[in-house]
Design a protein that fits this description.
Nucleotidyltransferase, domain 5, 12 helices, disordered N terminus, alpha/beta, 14 strands, 3 domains, five-stranded mixed β-sheet, Arc Repressor Mutant, subunit A
Length: about 375
């Protein structure tokens, strides 16, 4: 049995330095020995030893030389990104999208595959296995290097009990035990996350939430949902269902805008918006009418959280853009006592997949960095 390396010993200190050095390469790209010294705060001999150990461990490689500076050409060291890997998956009722994720967050190709409408032709295990194969083929990656899969779904899985799946758009998928079944079939760790939560992660990392301490996200697409970013952490609720607001009943005032609407889904869901706008970009008059509906849909979020920022995301929000966000902000102030800043989504292309890639990148990165710690105690 391998002995555990005690803190403070040379081996432990070496592992700490190696991990920091590897992290620097992931964060900054290829570096020379001098660059590593400056970022990590070690001597040149120590940097050389670190890189030698990491190369021997198979997690770092020499990547040419840097020229154009006084003296001899300097060797460039780079983190190896070919393993471990992850695959991010995002799917709705009609299409599956997937991409390979490495520890540096490289922008690998996105693959798309239409999904069968007949539940008899659907299989969670088969669809995700195919997504892994397609994504790896597009990226030129080895599927055997994929350790983790992150799946964004239009719904959520109860984290307790039998892991019940709550969704209406994944026909043929098991209603209980989804994660266990996928992990057994795929032989990989599986993370299942609500699609709107992943969209919020994308907004936090690269979109409208970037400069805000906290924000609520209102998703407007075929479905209606919400997500809550509190200081950079998602609030999912005890059973994973925080933000499932689509089937909340409309208020009397909201019902006056559309007497046929019984729920927020009826008020601002995909069918309601298409009926209002004819499926095209809204005119000025339609924009104001849609904004008032959205303002009413946002009131439950504002009453519970009182966020300083409300981000409008999803296909409807992307179509309306900044003019729709401005109109919603005005409508909220007109019909309520709240006055959040309302911002249009900053992630208009595959926002759920973008969030899944960000979510998964941190886990792949941890897997790679943990390799150093495991080597230190082996």
């Amino acid at each position: 049995m391998a002995a555990t390396t005690a803190q403070g010993t040379p081996s432990w200190l070496g592992a700490v330095n190696d991990r920091v050095g590897l992290a620097a390469l992931l964060d900054h790209g290829p570096l020379t020995r001098i660059g590593i010294c400056e970022l990590v705060g070690v001597s040149k001999p120590t940097a050389s030893l670190m890189m030698s150990r990491l190369i021997a461990a198979g997690v770092v490689e020499e990547q040419g030389t840097r020229t154009g500076t006084p003296g001899r050409s300097a060797v460039l060291y780079a983190a190896r990104l070919d393993r471990p890997l992850g695959v991010a998956v995002d799917l709705d009722a009609h299409e599956l999208r997937a991409a390979v994720v490495d520890a540096a967050g490289t922008d690998h190709p996105v693959v798309r595959r239409p999904l069968a409408e007949d539940p008899a032709e659907r299989s969670a295990e088969r669809e995700i296995a195919q997504a892994i194969a397609d994504a790896c083929a597009a990226a030129g990656s080895d599927p055997d290097a994929v350790r983790t899969v992150c799946i964004g779904i239009p719904g959520y899985v109860d984290p307790g009990g039998a892991g019940e799946l709550f969704t209406e758009t994944l026909p043929g998928w098991p209603s209980t035990g989804l994660r266990d079944r996928l992990e057994e079939a795929l032989g990989r760790r599986v993370l299942i996350e609500n699609d709107v939560n992943l969209a919020a992660i994308a907004e936090r990392r690269r979109g409208a939430g970037l400069d805000h301490q906290e924000f609520a996200l209102l998703w407007l697409g075929n479905g209606v949902g919400a997500s809550f970013d509190l200081g950079g952490e998602l609030y999912r609720g005890t059973f994973g269902g925080a933000g499932e607001i689509g089937f909340l009943p409309v208020s009397a005032d909201a019902g006056a805008l559309d007497p046929t609407a019984r729920s927020l889904q009826d008020l601002v869901g995909g069918r309601a918006v298409a009926a209002l706008t004819g499926g095209a970009a809204p005119t000025a008059e339609q924009l104001d009418a849609l904004a008032e509906r959205i303002a009413h849909a946002a009131l439950p979020l504002l009453a519970v959280l009182d966020p300083g920022c409300l981000v409008l995301a999803g296909p409807t929000a992307a179509l309306g853009g900044a003019p729709l966000a401005a109109a919603v902000e005005s409508a909220i102030r007109r019909i309520s006592r709240w006055y959040p800043a309302v911002l249009a989504t900053g992630v208009t292309t595959d926002p759920v997949l973008a969030g899944a890639r960000e979510f998964l990148r941190n886990r792949v990165r941890d897997d790679l960095l943990d390799t150093v710690a495991r080597l230190a105690v082996s």
